[in-house]
Write a structure and sequence with these properties.
This protein has 11 helices and 17 strands. A hairpin with a 5-residue loop joins strand 15 (342-346) and strand 16. With 391 residues, it is an alpha+beta fold. The protein has helices spanning 5-11, 13-16, 53-61, 66-70, 100-105, 141-144, 211-214, 219-222, 237-242, 269-273, 375-387, and strands at residues 135-136, 148-155, 158-167, 178-181, 196-202, 228-235, 243-244, 247-248, 256-261, 278-279, 292-296, 309-313, 316-318, 327-331, 342-346, 352-357, 367-370.
Amino acid sequence: MRSIRPLLAVTGLASALALTATACGPTEDAASGKPAAASSAAGDGQGGAELPKDLADKLKEHGVDPEKWKNGEWKNWDKDTWLREAKDFVNPVIEGLWKPERMQSAKSPQKTMAAGGISGDQGVTDPEPRPVRAEPEKKPYHENAAPVGKVFFDAPEGSMVCSATVIKDPKNPGKSNLVWTAGHCVHAGQAGGWYRNIAFVPAYNDLGKSPAQLQSAPPQEVAPYGVYWADWVATSNEWISDGGPTGGEGAPYDYAVMHVKPENGGKSLEETVGVALEVDFQAPEAQSVPAMGAWGYPAAAPYDGALMHKCVDRPGRLSLSPGTPTMWRIGCTMTGGSSGGGWFRELPSGKLALVSNTSIGPVTAGWLAGPRLGAGAQQIYTMMSNKFAGQ
């Protein structure tokens, strides 16, 4: 196994990739020194408050009764009624649905981590990297990797989990509610439509407790900043039309931006978490990048999804087919559940920026690949920022 320590020492990423929250971080509980979690709604995920009129009207447009939706109709995955077009995203809040125990039971979308047969253009595919063992992130997470968290959602297979990152919003400087993840964490691709009950939990399991310990952990340790439901999500048209269980032709376009709602109004996600990352759409060629780091919550064996991990490696190139863009690839042993987690590099300015997200990897879990973020990804990002400008 190749050691990454000399690489870290040369590039200076050892401290930059720590993702320590800034001084404008979360409100601290004076007694504990821990972030004060946003209050979460109680309930059993059935019924609850009325849906906002615009969401209720949108459901009615598609022949869905809003009251039935709240009371379990969202579990109906009939292909004829499963909304799949970009303009049709709906994600009504169901109060109390994402309780800590339901978060723990969520599975990883493991099939999306299988790269399938790679028959790409070897001219833009570098030799397979040696595995880099994923390292657990330092605890508490709110002090070391505050913008990294988990995405929870429901799919036909049940409750699922991915990883994601808080990113900056150009039209709402210092007050971003934008989150970056993978397309396959929000939409089923060519085989289906939008997933449901999509929510983000930054710094999930803040103290890094084991699954057994989490069963009795207080909510503020499971979700130190609370639960944030997505009120709009955008992914690429290529993922919607071509994405598949093993990535498929949509893998190089496997990215998504979510806009989330702060619980009970109040401050934005960026203000609450204390930090958000820039997004770099003009990263240089792989050979010019000394190191990239991938963060996430691997949930497929041998991991259990409870702990945040990271890998740092020199990136290479991977092409799945001659007609699609080349992807980034690094050595990493993280598995399903880390999907959607951000990849970061240090900019010449010394700042940290998101340059990709985990998309696919082999069943043997020796490497990960993520899309290069170019004009298409930037267009989605800009559209999301413009859509919520001044909000």
